[in-house]
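Record Putrescine transporter, 446 aa.
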Amino acid sequence: MSKKKDKMSVLQLTMITAINMMGSGIIMLPTNLAQVGTMSILSWLVTGVGSMALAYAFAQCGMFSRNEGGMGGYAEYSHGTAGSFMANYSYGVSLVIANIAIAISAVGYSSVFLGVQLSPVAVGLWTIFTLWLATALNFGGASITGKLGSITVWGVIIPVLGMSTIGWFWFSGHQYVTAWNPNHLPFFTAVGKSISITLWAFLGLESASANMDAVENPKKNVPIACLGGTIGAGIIYIISTNVIAGIVPNASLLNTNAPFGLAYASMLGPIAGKIVMALMVMSCFGSLLGWQFTIAGVFRSSAVEGYFPKAFGKVSKNGTPVLGMCIITIGQSLLALMTISPTLAKQFNVLVNLAVVTNVIPYLLSMSSVNTIMKSENVPEGKIKKTTFIALIASAYSLYALYSSGLEPMFYGSIVTFAGWTLYGFVSHRFDVKKSDKDKSEELIA
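=>
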């Protein structure tokens, strides 16, 4: 058992949780939020409450669930093996899509940094190249990926924290108010339009309880760290994106592929803007590197469980699922070509909405299992009622996020979900037939 001095403090776990959420999710946010205007701060507040409810419920799941496999293990309590499969499947698909959006962010910042104007097709081709480069670099194993990620994450942390602090010296209240609702959208339309974009920034909060064995007094500190990390990341998101809206005109934000670079160029000159762009390209690629490895790990563990084809479970001598990585990247390459849009920001938006829709499915499966998880572990009734109520809030927010994503993402997300149920039908004999035989044997014995 680990000694207390080897454990993380609640402050350290809170910081790690916030940093994991920030990743590369923030770097294109100002451009996408500019479609609504500074009124999007209301969406941040709605998403902040919803994300805190999700974080708290996931913390409780992590503490009381006896099942392995993260959200798949949580879903199994109420939805059985089929629910576990769907949670793993939809989460894996969501990560596949989300990584294309991260690669597009890297391409966007790189093009502005190098002063190159890319056509929609060129954006798609460079996105594919970036994905394959990240995949190839992952062949070296987890240790190399981890070391690079711990360095590159500072490429986003430094500019974002800088914007949240020194950016106020260039902030214009008049410009911020002018950009409140530039497209004169109805109130609820405006708030809903940016819900999926703000939720995108918080994706990954479900991993906050993964480090519970490494923290002191986990039953007390994990919920604190989950909520604290979510609140911390939310404050940084809200401040940095709204400060930029008061520095750079809304029309300029709408037409840039590197909003943070443009903001720093406006504040400190073009050289500072270039440095920030370089830092964010570095961070974005480091994040892509880590997430490509993570996706392969998710697919590998699902293959071991018998959910996915055995090809995803094969590993090289250093334990890396190289074949699985290549299959996943082929799929990402095709999807990058299929979603080519008139502008980089439009393509990013399409992918983000689809990633949010597919990621919300395991959220809903997990939230609906909270009550069963806690009852199974004989948790006090008062605690069960409190956590179940919070899980209901999280579920309501998740359903609203689905609605706000729009008809097109919901349409494609539905096809992906139905495809998942179909795929489960072809592998369910591995679980359901055995279970049926076991039940018959028990009946005969009785």
